[in-house]
Amino acid sequence: MMKKFLAVATAAMMVSSGILMAHTVAKKGMKADLVLMPKFLGILVFDQANQGAQEAHKELQNPGKLEFLGPTPENSVAGQIEILTTATTQGQDGIMISNNAGDQLAPAAKSARNKGMTVVTWDSPIPSAEGEQLFIAQVDFNETGTVMADMAMNIMGNAGGDFAVLSASPDAANQNAWIAAMKEALKAPKYSSLNLVDVVYGDDQSEKSYNQALALVDKYPNLKLIMAPTTVGIAAAAKAMQDEGLCDQVKTSGLGLPAEMVSYTMNDCAPEFALWSFVDLGYLSYYATYLIATGQMEGIPGETFKAGRMGYYNVEKDPTRAEGLRVLMGPFTVYDKSNVEAASN
Amino acid sequence: MNVIQGLRPEKLRELVLLILIALVLIVFSSVIENYLNARLFNRVSASVALMAVLAIGQTMVVLTRNIDLSVGSIVGFTAYFVGHQLSQYGDMHPMLAIFLAVGVGTLMGGINGILVAYCRIPSIIVTLGTMALYRTLLVEYSDAKTVLTVNLPRWLLDLPSLNLISFDRLHLRVLVVGMIVVVILFQIVLKYTSFGRKLYAIGSNPEAAKMAGFANQRMVLTAFLLCGALAGLTGFMFLARFGNITVVAGIGFELKSVAAVVVGGVNIFGGSGSAFGAFLGAVLIDLLENSLIRWLQISEFWRDALLGLLILISVATDSVIMKRFQLYWARKQARSSPET
Questions:
Q1: How far apart are CA A328 and CA A316, in angstroms?
Q2: Residues of A in contact with B241 (CB under 8 A)
Q3: Touching check for B33 and chain A: CB below 8 Å?
Q4: Are residues A47 and B135, on separate chains, in Cβ contact within 8 Å?
């Protein structure tokens, strides 16, 4: 009996999917009005995510609308809640959120879900996962730790030495997780020569990050590297080292945007840094949201779907949060003199 | 005591600030190894350069019993606007770029000034509104693009590290010299010109100033224009210092400038204070900030709180000591006047 059922089930799966692996391939041309909401407007990476989403929108020939709506920088938290609430009232079919409001966004997200709207987060999730169906994670947090440790090793050489971390704010969940992952990675014997001396915070403000970077140099005379897992911090630190003529002594690395970092990589102030593609993140988020909003995918663990040019992705339980599901994008691109110029245009 | 007797209250306030700055230097040099060196001067001076210019603009407005909360947004907008123009027209003359920044700032300050002086809307309301308006204008204008270091002309990128004079490792940067020129210029304007004296008069007693036939409205407008112009200049310096400019540029500068002005002894209710005082206020705050981040024993979370506390203490001691001396000064005068 069981055998027969399995055989039927397998056959059905094979028929429906065409090949052995069960996965959803998007049907084009179905209508869904979607909203892409960044943390706030006016930042390059979010605009790049919008480019990716627009690309997917065209590719899928969605007759509905894709709107890019976000709050102004000084009104980010309240503005995000307002936009989500308005989108719900307007009867949008789905929204993609880079959450900057922590769990404060959860009530609005839950009421959106009750109205049948699809709620997907990307870049930054709702911590409790309440009201959120899926989180499109840019990279695996553990991988971030290893990538940073590897870059530190490459830059400082086998002799190693002192280095410090310049983070965003002390309560940024993603930053803290990355730093924790790096500390974990540093325990491996191959990184034993790397000595993390301090973690400081620049609050993602150019001015404060710049001053913090210089203070690190004064605090630790033997400092060889500043590792900044934030795009604002890494650019400010590199500029500070350049302005003070310290690039020979202290290098900068971390997570940065090629366009912002190209001059510092070429003049050896920041020989190596890493990032993921925000265009791809927007593209992938759009695919997942479109599939759920048009009823082609449920958004449950174990599902696999094809995201156009990027290939196949799985829905899985998010190991970095107590609740919630994620789709892991990855991987990192490490930039150096050989590829940074091409990527910066 | 004769020395103190000879000092005007404003001078005394400045003296107290200088003593506080010296005290901070002494305290931190005893807890931080290798604290007092050329680097400290280079770094604090380069960082003060921006805030001092902005604080002097704020002083103009505060002297007339007003406040300008939009300066942070003006700094952000001008930094972005000029950066954007320079990325497109890299051969623009440096002076033209500076004029452009000052011009845009003046225009924005002018809008504040007209609304406050002629439409009689309280400045805190007007500038709270324009703070959001100018920021939104920046968001719209930027179209989510960043001004990138790589597109800016070479001279601008080299400007922050350009030294006018160097003694050994002690550098006097061009931007710092520019700030000193602004401080001296405005100190002279406030102290020795009739415009400056009228600003004080309007701040200490607007009714009396009006009765005396001062063009109060035009004076307030001028104060806002000057504040906007200096915020524009700060925007230019911001661009030179940080290179990559996004829509968040200058957020929080309005409160920092107000803090520098208040610590610098400019009365928030108008009528007293000086450009030199605002400069000293900016120096004290920046010195505290730069020193606290180097003090290993203090955790990241306590630094902001400690900074706030130190600002409160410095203002409180300042005002307590000032009251004592003012009283002493008044009594001394009352006692000596019958003799003459």
A1: 8
A2: 210, 239, 243
A3: no
A4: no
pTM strictly above 0.90: no
Domains defined for chain A, CATH in brackets: 2-139+278-335 (3.40.50.2300), 141-275 (3.40.50.2300)
pLDDT tens track for B151-191? 899 999 889 888 888 888 888 999 999 999 999 999 999 99
Q: Do A218 and B294 touch (CB under 8 A)?
A: yes
A75–B144 C-beta distance less than 8 A: no
CA dihedral angle for residue A223, residue A225, residue A226, residue A228, rounded to 10 degrees: -160
CB contact under 8 A, A72 and B135: yes
Interface confidence, given as ipTM, is: 0.80
More confident residue, B160 or B334: B160
Question: B110: exposed, middle or buried (C-beta count within 10 Å: 0-12, 13-18, 19+)?
Answer: middle
Q: Report yes or no: B241 at the A interface, CB cutoff 8 Å.
A: yes
Question: Cβ-count burial of B336 within 10 angstroms (0-12 exposed, 13-18 middle, 19+ buried)?
Answer: exposed
Residue A41, SS3 per DSSP? coil
Q: Is the pLDDT of residue B338 over 70?
A: no
Q: Return the biggest CA–CA distance within chain B.
A: 72
What is the average pLDDT across A243-250? 92
Which of A162, A201, A214 should we substitute to test contact with B (largest number of B Cβ atoms within 10 Å)? A214
Average pLDDT score over chain B: 88
Q: A199 contacts in B (CB within 8 Å)?
A: 300
Q: What confidence tens digit (pLDDT) does each residue in A115-155 have?
A: 999 999 998 888 899 999 999 998 887 888 999 999 999 99
What residue ranges define each of the domains in chain B, with the CATH number in brackets? 2-334 (1.10.3470)
Angle at A316 between CA A312 and CA A322, to 5 degrees: 150
Angle between helices B94-117 and B216-242 (to 10 degrees): 140
Rg of chain A on CA atoms, in Å: 22
